[in-house]
Amino acid sequence: MTQSTLTRRDFCHSTLSVAVAAALGCRSQPFTKEFRLRYMVASCMYGGLSLETIVPEVRKSGATHIDVWSSHGKPKTQHEMMTALGYERFVELLDDHQIKLGCLTHYSLGPFGLQEEMKVAEKFGGTVLVSGSDGSSGLEGEDLKKAVYGFAEKMKPHVEIAEETGCTIAIENHGGALIKSPDSIRWLVEAVDSKHLGIALAPYHLPQDEEMLAGLIADLDHRLAVFYAWQYGMGCSKKLPKEQEILQMPGRGDLDFAPLVAALKKIDYRGWTVIFMHPVPRGIPIMDTAAEVTAEINRSRGYLDACLASA
Asked: Are 60 and 294 in contact (CB under 8 A)?
């Protein structure tokens, strides 16, 4: 291992780290770094509130990065607001509050329409771009696997551009799409061997089975790019009383996130964790005010951190 290729992670597991640790009196263990979830805030949690209102809330929620959505914001999305502000002013806004752009979410563009956004993401040092997949969800078995591999082939030129721009395309397992089942998720990352194509994993759209979800996280390993801390609860397709709607949030509904968090720790997950839910109708904040949205995110963060402490 040469000096030029020695990463911090390599160092922490090398014999050199053992020697240094011994010199400092840590005779039995090399240096270790405490595992933490890396939180990012989805702008759509705040509905159509302005970026000037949302960005100061990001640090308050325990996050360091923001995911700017191009949908689910009324009367304007935060992506529209970002474009209107212009690159320099948006960067100033982020810098003023010690926040960085971590993700651009674009379901409307689809997985084959992200190339222009990759140029935007490149300005920020490369970020994640989230989209859904295409195709029918009604396939099963070998027919489904064939369709997934066909989708993967179509994605390869886009992944090459993601590599050139330092971005990662993350495909969400969205209900009704081709990539929605555990098998289809596994087949996609198997078909495209590149860290620039990953998965944005949404437990909401999968069976609420903790053991299965934890196993899927373990299988995805470093190909997991975004983890939505989001459960089904009572769903998000029809209007419900707020106390039922927020059962989608971690620590509110029945899904036990402890096995999922333990799996994230086991794989030393370095991607983003986004505490998430959808309100009904789409485009409004999940709570009445920005402060209340942040408080609800923090409630779930406290729950997830407690799960991690016991992992």
From this structure: yes
